[in-house]
């Protein structure tokens, strides 16, 4: 046990906690719910922590970093996304930022495919119909959805998750797969995906899966103007970050028939209030940000986040280091 200290903003799965507790003094917010911002700020002032292990619900910005003090070596988030961390503020203080890449790729890709199928085949409406006693005689035109076979798939963000979504969806027999990213990637060939620009994606695709990070470049890319240019039968799936879609514009697009349907595992805000117009819409399937909710992923995410803290404290490069551009 060294005199190094780690603060964890939530109860985390045991493999991660145990790894840290082996060598460090570990304090944590003893709850399954998010730590209130002010509680985090106040807590960080009470001791000089060397590492902060946080969640995607914690806004790690100037006030938090000021409270933590100059000895803080790393902000390690137990997530792939890091849009909740002010990277510039961390860089200015020489604080490393690390995420948990790779270990939730399969769980998020599986969930994305499930959500796409749920949305295309109107599975939520079918389940509700059975539960509410609306299942009457077999009807030729009832709850008809859209087939994947022969349609065009678009992937917005062909990183690990986007690629693995494409790999799983390819056997369904899409006629063409397009992708958008900051640049062409060689592995796209493995799923016969063709590089295009945003315009090409929205004009040509029947299904679009948003699998990117939230950045100033991707924020509200799906907005009133882009919905107008999408195919009327388009189905939009988002398992990246809610902020990539302008939700007011999505409500209008789904009402007006600018696009056919949407499946969202991430929303803006989160949680989406149950009064939000999207919640009651039949052509919108909403899940509560559960892409990486498997024990395999969550245990591995906790463990990597812990290893990232360990590495930074030992002056080594964390495996999930996030580079500030
Ligand atoms: C992530 O890791 O960023 C995911 O959104 C968590 O489910």
From TrEMBL:
Family: Belongs to the D-isomer specific 2-hydroxyacid dehydrogenase family.
Protein name: Glyoxylate reductase/hydroxypyruvate reductase
Assigned GO CC terms: cytosol
Keyword Cytoplasm tagged: no
Organism: Candidula unifasciata
Domain D-isomer specific 2-hydroxyacid dehydrogenase catalytic stretches: 8-322
Gene Ontology molecular function: glyoxylate reductase (NADPH) activity; hydroxypyruvate reductase (NADH) activity; NAD binding
D-isomer specific 2-hydroxyacid dehydrogenase NAD-binding domain residues: 114-291
Keywords recorded for this protein, A-Z: Oxidoreductase
InterPro entries (UniProt xref): D-isomer_2-hydroxyacid_DH, D-isomer_2_OHA_DH_cat_dom, D-isomer_DH_CS, D-isomer_DH_NAD-bd, NAD(P)-bd_dom_sf
